[in-house]
Write a structure and sequence with these properties.
The relative contact order is 0.21. The model has no long low-confidence stretch (mean pLDDT 96). The chain has helices at 16-29, 61-64, 68-78, 85-105, 137-149, 217-224, and strands at 3-12, 35-38, 55-56, 119-120, 130-131, 155-158, 161-169, 172-180, 185-196. The protein has a six-stranded mixed beta sheet. Strands 3-5-4 form a three-stranded antiparallel beta sheet, with helices on one face. The termini are far apart. With 241 residues, it is α/β, with parallel strands linked by helices. The structure holds flavin-adenine dinucleotide. The site of flavin-adenine dinucleotide (FAD) has 34 residues, from helix 1, helix 5, strand 7 and helix 6.
Length: 241
């Protein structure tokens, strides 16, 4: 008998994107919905733990002369004017709020002697705006988010569950199929909504600094379910390989 599990929301992926989505869904729903986070590795082994450098945000516009417009301009210029500018606008607007939110959640951002969150320059920035936690930004963000997601009783972590397909009925998401890698058991996981947060596909290439798990499964799951993929010609090679 195939085990059938039922949730309201299923999130595929437990990197920074998946855990942040889980936290927000749990917070907004105030315990009223059942959420499952599926990950083919243990959550804390998701690729995000290896991000080092930090995240850009305009934190001190008055003191530094930085602005959301300048952050957006630097980002669009850095993309050779090919970036989706609506997405850039949203990114720069949300970034400062997100840095402060993660600060309140407990991320130990590096600070100056006055206790203010430090920022440093990264490539393409007209004003230093990279916020960081030593050289382990991804690890600290992940451990803080993971600890906080575990506080919600309505979020279930299904570690080492490999999602093999999306279940669709006439274009409507119904759930996923997965293999429990610890037992080899095949499971059907039904849900009213799904979020794909399966990270990048660096391992498709011969040279990459991404984790062995970054194999682009999410793209394939979505593509096979008839969901369009966008900007597939723009993988990120970081830092350089
Ligand atoms: C060396 C390095 C340094 C970096 N430094 C920075 C930095 O300083 N700042 C920055 O902004 N970015 C940085 N990046 C980029 C950043 O790490 C990634 O963009 C980010 O971590 C992606 O997060 P994610 O949540 O989308 O995916 P991931 O963290 O890759 O998580 C993907 C999740 O999906 C799950 N998954 C995948 N397929 C399946 C499946 N079939 N079934 C079930 N689960 C599945 C995995 O188990 C995992 O939990 C760096 C990247 C590298 C390589």
């Amino acid at each position: 008998m195939v085990e059938v599990l039922k949730y309201d929301l299923v999130i595929i992926g437990s990197g920074l994107a998946g855990l942040r989505a889980a936290f927000e869904a749990a917070r907004v729903s105030q315990g009223k919905i059942r959420i499952a986070v599926l990950s083919k590795v243990h959550a804390m082994r998701s690729h995000s733990v290896s991000a080092e450098g930090g995240a850009s945000a305009v934190l001190y516009p008055k003191e530094t002369g930085d602005s959301l417009d300048l952050h957006a301009y630097d980002t669009v210029k850095g993309s050779d004017f090919l970036a989706d500018q609506d997405a850039v606008e949203l990114l720069v607007q949300e970034a400062p709020k997100e840095i402060i939110f993660m600060d309140h959640l407990g991320v130990p951002w590096s600070r100056d002697e006055k206790g203010r969150i430090l920022q440093r320059p990264f490539g393409g920035m007209s004003i230093p705006r990279t916020t960081f936690a030593q050289d382990k930004s991804g690890f600290f963000l992940m451990s803080t988010l993971y600890d906080n997601v575990l506080r919600f009783d309505n979020v279930e972590m299904l570690h080492e569950h490999f999602v093999t397909s999306l279940l669709m009925d006439h274009g409507v998401f119904k759930g996923v199929t997965a293999i429990d890698l610890r037992t080899g058991e095949f499971k059907v996981i039904l849900a009213k909504a799904g979020i794909i947060a399966t990270g990048g596909n660096g391992r498709v290439y011969k040279f990459t600094t991404m984790a062995w798990s970054s194999t682009g499964d999410g793209y394939s799951l979505a593509y096979r379910a008839g969901i369009p993929l966008k900007d597939m010609e723009f993988p990120q090679f970081h830092p350089t390989a």
